[in-house]
Amino acid sequence: MRFDRILFTALFLTAIVSNLYVIWSVEWLPLGDYGGHVELMDVVARYDSSHTIYSQVYTIPDGLRPNTATLFFAKWTGPYMDMDTSAKLLLSVYIVGLPLSILLLMWAFARSRWLALLSCPMVFNSMLNIGFLNYLLALPFLFVAVALARRFAESGSWKLGAALGTTLLFLYFAHIIPFLIALGISAAFIGLFIDRRKDLLRLWPLLLPTPLVADWSWRMFVALEATETGRTFGSKQGLGLIFKPWSSIIQYWHQWGMQYFKSNLDELAFGGLVGIWVLVMGLSCLQRQGQRAIRPASPVEPQARWAWLAFARRHSIVGLTLCCVVALFTLPSHMNEMQVITERVVLLILFFALAWPTASFVQRAQRWLIVPMSTIALLYPWAVQQEFQNFERLLVGDLPEMIGELPEATWMSYVMLTPHNELINMGPLWHTPKALHAVLNGGVTDDSFAVRPYTPVQYKPGQTPFRLSYLRSGFWRSPHVYNYDHILVRSTEPPTGALGAPNLKLRSQSGIWWLFDVRQIDSSGARVLMAGDITGALKQFDCPPGEVLGGFTGDYDDKKLTHLRFQCRPVVQKKPSGAGIDLGTKPKKEQEAPTPINTATSVPGSERKTIEAMCPENEVLVGLAGVQNPKITFLQSICAPLNDLEDVEVLEGGGFSKEWRSFELRCKKGEAAAGFRGRSGAAIDAVGLGCRVLDLDPVAPAAAPK
């Protein structure tokens, strides 16, 4: 027995170390959402740094809440390491912790430790491929909670109860879904061992975690915490209440199990593991029939009052697995805000099924199975490492060097013209560039997880970016191009449209990566800012010398903004030119009396309502704020005094709808809006500004009458 223990320990630890070596042997990992988590960790770690623009764009949590464990780890480690290293440390907890937690599960259900060796190659599963870092961190602790709940339910040990309660608390802050699953399983296991009324006291480890469910449910389903765009978690769409046919769900066994590479390497490894498991199950059944198997029953399992209860306790791991199978076929399934509850059940089924066989690995036939088990556990990591290195060499390539040359604290958009790859099943791995731009430059990209309602990091009002990738090949024509400093294009073919666009300049190119600088200064010398739709005729207007925009007037109906007029005003003592630009269609009957600033009134004889957002006297327009859906539906002026362009105020403005995506365009320090840039037709499609440095003397106050 001593040799058996030494042999298992040596093989088990070698397999874990091999897995660990894989993730540290490459710099950037082929994990889908992993890059997005690295970006958020960098936001929290360097939120107040002068080398980033995070504090202008995001809000971060000020205390522990669900799904924040990784973020607070980033905050604690931020002064000592970059976030790529910090994230790999968290990933190492998963790599090491998952096999150890399965070993603890075998102990809890009195199974052979050799079965835990099967879990070592299963570390490289679909969830790792998807890259849910906070979920991966929580997964080992879910199995730890199940193991502790089983043993605590049997023995009632206060130490096990305290360990269970602590594990559940950590799960709450790591990821809410594993917490809810572990809490439910723990309550069920403890309930199995309640024979008398006094046994209800065994529920005490759940007293502290259970109220946390009520708090989370209130915020997500009652208070409906929303993102800056108005998206909430507790809606039909947010919950993902979409049911799929059973034929599709059956495919999940592979898709959400061990699927990783397109080379079928994962299928070979998983097929070998399944074959070994079937043989072990068969040998276990033969031993039982021949009365030769020594069932390692729990030494502390109390006598049950009823036969069915004793059966349920004895086969609780089988019952738990079957409950997960039922959940897989009955729960709603849709990758939206709820982020796949059903799909995550597949891994639970696979790992729980490892504890089904009761073989003790004492007999010769069983011990021979240790050879293929050890072979797969020790060789598979090295095959995975080759795939990881191919990913870094072929798909990442020179991208870190290209992005590393960009200035600090800039905006970058990532456009996928080729949305597939030939190595990894996760697709183009679109979150790697955002991690690079964050870690290397403290920059912001257009696809942060901050847009999701359950993410602790959120966009500030007006800072939610428009993803140019939605437009694919015509992205350079979007008004939102000017809101970025750089655009990264992933394309196996030259992006001819972007290469010929007058507002883009190719900065560098390597393999499938094309990095462009945005020409934010147009031919007139103005810095361009725009937001809105790609439709409508392009409009450009510049105020005469010595004048800048002073605001706008206009009107709207129940469907759209119908008319806007941006008006120039002098910044030196001169007669106003009265220059301006009209957008949309003017009302048939002009309003006779001027509309008071910041109010909306009905025009007599018309369904239109007028708006006016002209800056006060001796103030100029320095920005615009509004809402688009996708055309402009609501608009406000951002004004500042001539002698202090940083002291801004936002006028009320107006429009017919404030729903969907808000935006904020603001000239840089020392600049004012000296012209208009936008698009319009029958409606106001896009609005924008041409900003210039304001180096003129302000308007002198009028002389007092004698």
Task: List key phrases describing it.
alpha+beta, 706 residues, single chain, disordered C terminus, 39% helix
Global structural class: alpha+beta
The main sheet orders its strands as 3-2-5-7-6
Mean pLDDT: 85
Number of helices: 22
Biggest sheet overview: 5 strands, mixed
Portion of residues in beta strands equals 15-25%
Oligomer: single chain
Radius of gyration: 31 Å
What form results from the Cα inertia axes? Answer: elongated
Describe the structure.
The chain is α+β, with helices and mostly antiparallel strands. It folds into 3 domains: 2-30 and 67-387, no CATH class; 397-419 and 431-518; 527-693, Vitelline Membrane Outer Layer Protein I, subunit A, CATH 2.100.10.30. It is 39% helix and 18% strand. The protein has 22 helices and 21 strands. The strands form 5 sheets. Strands 3-2-5-7-6 form a 5-stranded mixed beta sheet. Strands 12-11-10-14-13 form a 5-stranded antiparallel beta sheet, with no helix packed on it. Strands 15, 16, 17, 18 and 19 form a 5-stranded antiparallel beta sheet that branches. Strand 6 (504-510) and strand 7 form a beta hairpin. Helix 2 runs parallel beside helix 21 (432-441), helix 7 (133-155) runs antiparallel to helix 8 (158-174) and helix 16 runs antiparallel to helix 17. The radius of gyration is 31 Å and the shape is elongated. Mean pLDDT is 85; it is low at 291-300, 335-339, 590-606 and 698-706.
